[in-house]
């Protein structure tokens, strides 16, 4: 029996990891989910970068708009970890094009 990759699973796996990363509170679980999300992000930059970019924009908009559901305590470590995981795994021949375009005016 071989494990087969189905493209529709990419989004399901990513949503599960993203939701866990943003909600889990146990340190050990968080570290494992963060590692898995980094591996996932590295793969998705090649397969469907628009998924990562939409999640990144969604989280950045939530932070910029300071929605009430965000907590800036240790328990919300998933927010910066999600942002960091997506940005550090971006690759490209011209450096990091998304990162540069998003923060060029800062």
Index terms:
mainly alpha; 5 helices; globular; 67% helix; 106 residues; single chain
Task: Provide a descriptive summary of the structure in words.
With 106 residues, the protein is mostly helical. The protein contains 5 helices and no strands. The protein has helices spanning 7-23, 27-47, 49-64, 78-88, 97-102. Helix 1 (7-23) packs across helix 4 (78-88), helix 2 crosses helix 3 (49-64) and helix 3 (49-64) packs antiparallel against helix 4 (78-88). It is globular, with a radius of gyration of 15 Å.
Short synopsis of the structure:
The protein is mainly α and 106 residues long. The chain has five helices and no strands.
How many helices? The count is 5
The helix/strand class is: mainly alpha
Radius of gyration: 15 Å
Biggest pleated sheet? none
Shape: globular
Calculate the mean pLDDT score and round it: 79
Poorly predicted regions: none
Q: Strand percentage, roughly? A: under 5%
Write the layout of secondary structure elements.
Blueprint: H1 7-23, H2 27-47, H3 49-64, H4 78-88, H5 97-102
Helix pairs in contact: 1-2, 1-4, 2-3, 2-4, 3-4
